[in-house]
């Protein structure tokens, strides 16, 4: 087996390739959709929303195929925690505008809370089954259907009026190349996680919930930080809400179709409760529709505390 530092290098490179490939894949798919006449708001809540979660999805499927399904729960829970406490925390700290005007409390926020508690209930018996996965996918379908039919479409329609009357051969070619790159990089990411966990004698889900979770949350971090700098804090918030819902319902659901997912004690007794706690913190913070930078710093401190507890550094 290769030395530890080499395994970490392989993991970091794999995650970097995975994230960048997912970005190219999403961009190409979006252009093809616009060329085919698919409404831009539909692309926004399907291709673009799913695109930021492709790294979590592909590493999860690869983990199940390698009989290391415990990586899935680590990646999903770790990513959701990182999205709220780290990504939103940083967004709140640097944003020029901390006032929310668009109301996401009617359906989006309840769905976010429901997804967190749904995962906890499904995980009580230490496994996430095929039936749990079907119910997850059904819940995700209902949420997407709501997004398509609700008045929120008017908000999304304003964001993108682009159309393409012709398209270069480079676009579908890039779609294929990026898909292949996603497949290869996810395989090497999972293999390096397994090897690192063996060398350090810690659970693969711990590596997934920390290093991999931060790495696969980079698309959300990039989108949210960019929006926050421009004062569009609502885009940052909406991006994280949609991503976390898809991670829980979509990634867990789709991955479970390939085999029953193992839920470890670390994730059941610490990871998932922290995810629920972070979700409730976020919900309470946005109720008044005015967020403070102090709340952002508090989110970041709690994330650092989570990492310390995860590796027993206290």
Task: Report the span from N to C terminus.
Answer: 31 Å
Radius of gyration: 19 Å
Across the major sheet, the strand order is 1-2
- Could you spell the SSE succession in H and E letters? HHHHHEHHHHHHEHH
Overall outline: globular
Stretches with pLDDT under 50, minimum 5 residues: 151-161
Number of helices: 13
What's the total count of β strands? 2
Percent strand: under 5%
Q: Topology, please?
A:
Elements: H1 4-35, H2 40-51, H3 54-65, H4 70-94, H5 108-123, E1 127-128, H6 130-149, H7 152-157, H8 170-200, H9 204-216, H10 218-229, H11 233-256, E2 261-262, H12 265-286, H13 293-310
Antiparallel strand pairs: 1-2
Helix pairs in contact: 1-2, 1-8, 3-4, 3-8, 3-11, 4-9, 4-10, 4-11, 4-12, 4-13, 5-11, 5-12, 6-11, 8-9, 10-11, 12-13
Description:
With 314 residues, this protein is mainly α. It is built from 13 helices and 2 strands, in the order H-H-H-H-H-E-H-H-H-H-H-H-E-H-H. A two-stranded antiparallel ribbon has the order 1-2. The radius of gyration is 19 Å and the shape is globular.
Short characterization:
The chain is mainly α and 314 residues long. The protein has helices at 4-35, 40-51, 54-65, 70-94, 108-123, 130-149, 152-157, 170-200, 204-216, 218-229, 233-256, 265-286, 293-310, and strands at residues 127-128, 261-262. Helix 4 runs parallel beside helix 10 (218-229), helix 4 runs antiparallel to helix 11 and helix 10 (218-229) runs antiparallel to helix 11 (233-256).
